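On to our target:
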Amino acid sequence: MKTSILFATLCVVLSTTNLSARYTTAPKNLDYNELNAQAQNEYLKPIRPGYDKKNPYWNNFSFKFTYAPAFDFETVKGAKSYRYTITENPEATEKINKKVVKIINNKFSPISFTASTPNSSLAPVWNKIPAANVILKVDALDSKGNVIKTVGERKFLRDYGFCGPYNNAVRPYKEAAIKGMLYIHNMEEMKCWIDSGVPNMNYAHYTYANKIISAVISNEVLVAKYVPSEREKAIKTAEAAAAFLVKLSQPANSPMAYFPPTYYKNLIASKRAENQGAVMTMDAVFVINAFLDLYDATHQQKYFDFAVNIARTYKKLQNADGSFPIKTYIATGKPTNERKAMLHGICQASLRLLQDYNVTEFEDMRKKAEIWMHNGAVKSFDMTGQFEDVTVNGIKPYENLTNSTAAPYANYLCSKKTITEEELQDARDLLRLSEDQFTYWNFLYNEWGFRRFNTPCVIEQYKYKTPVDASASNVSGGFLAYYKATGDKLAFAKAKALIDNMTIQQIHKNGYQPTTWDVSIKKTNELSIWLNCALSATKRMLEMSELMQEK
């Protein structure tokens, strides 16, 4: 795999972009010398720097950068200039099974430059810094160059940037996708749906009913489509899982009508006090999409109607400003706290209802949600993680950023039939954030002689710094949507590198798609799979197969 230690950046100008264009096939050729140079240039431009007075400083909790960063360091009265000095951090370590292991940095001599302000970006020297854990110190200087005060210090990883080509897919994307969907289809824990119609709780993740059981339905619909010999069994499984969700759902006359529960039984996060009697408001979106999938496969109106009825409840729950609560008491429909939900899911589901089924009744809800997202989360750049097993209580702004909000919303914006220049700019910035903070194109070796992450990969969130297949799917999906909207070959190449690695990480004998792509010391019986994550990888490989026009 090729690597490089020099990276820079320059934002692509879109003034000549035809926003009505849609690229439906993969580029015929990828010139990696050209693409790598483009990537190096793009890495020199900071992502929404606060010094422009239009954006907040969003990176106070950031621990790595691929794009040249700028930091919120204080101005000192009487200072004539500021000296920026970057040195190697020799103390960087990682913890592996309770053992602290030293990371081996690329060596370099101290690098410095001066600027007129303490919050300039590191662009002047960014392409001189190798991939390494570094220490940045900024000193205020008087007119003679003497240090008045150290105004700031940050430790972070100056990360590798994109440098293709990477390892190609080890099998056709369609074949890998079918292997993945059949692995789930044949799991022992899937037999319960036909046998009893209730989840086998030996697979503990069934406790997240909306997310995981919806994945069962959508996976089985794919099996029915791509493996005709298994269609009958797959549809029976999907319908049994759907019937179970309907049975768990709230009555039609209740505040949360038709909503199935986020939490089922008393396992893992479902047993926490703050989750008792509550739902993650956006989790029912998984059910909307799963029931629409099942409707497409069976043409049974009841599945379509159930999906629409959930959407109607969303319409009732929406606040006047377009927002939704992040978590809601299922008995009352009242929010459990003042935190607001990220709305990529409901925007995407509403758009699907419009574009695929010509359902227009949710357009006002979608447009209001878009306005809230633009004026709130996107403008502030606080793309905070909202997971059913990670609390938001006590989380400060920017403390737990995630690609799982940023990249899907970028995908949504790029998937609209009509996209404005401003929306495209927002999508590009969200994808840059997803790459900068969460994507690893390569990884430094540690003193044990291996790279901890199986790169290229994407970690999930600040609070869970682990590469996850669903995160690779989120980011590659955003890049593919951006490519389809603009024809940017670099976006396609980045998506391809991540999707190719899905086929590499997959266990070729049985199609098992590991949820995490990290190197650790585990027994084989400790391997686990999140069905929703594996499903997302399957869908992304199918999308790539279509673009590549595989037979």
